[in-house]
User: Fold this.
Amino acid sequence: MGIRVQARCLDCGMTFAVDHGGGFLFHLLRCDSCGKTKSVGFDELGELHLRYLKGLQVLSSSASAARDRYIQESASVERISENEYHRGIEALAGKCRCGGKYSLDAPPRCPECHSTRLEEGEATLCYD
Ligand SMILES: [Zn+2]
Ligand SMILES: [Zn+2]
Assistant:
């Protein structure tokens, strides 16, 4: 579940929208140098996502329980930890055009001056 909030840069005064969090179908990454966002869909992750689900020991809701059981029983995929999963996503997202690296935990930045000193207001939009 992600939200979009209105943010204001404390350094240059620019206002802009900041997205937080990924959805049910994708991860949201952020460039660690300019703050540009990039989404990576679970379907783009392929086996990586499958291996991560296999590593999870939590029982999920009934809707996906059957699928998760199938994944856990399929012997061909190797389990990975959350850290390995995150590193894999970041490797897949690659580099930003500015030369920075897309990261899952880089802070939002002002698109104008790249400051991280932002004041965030109310959520303006919720998205999956
Ligand atoms: Zn700024
Ligand atoms: Zn960048």
About this structure: The two ends are 5 Å apart (CA to CA). Residues 2-127 form one domain. The pocket of zinc ion (ligand 2) is lined by residues 31, 33-34, 36, 96, 98, 100 (CB under 6 Å). The CA atoms of residues 22 and 123 lie 15 Å apart.
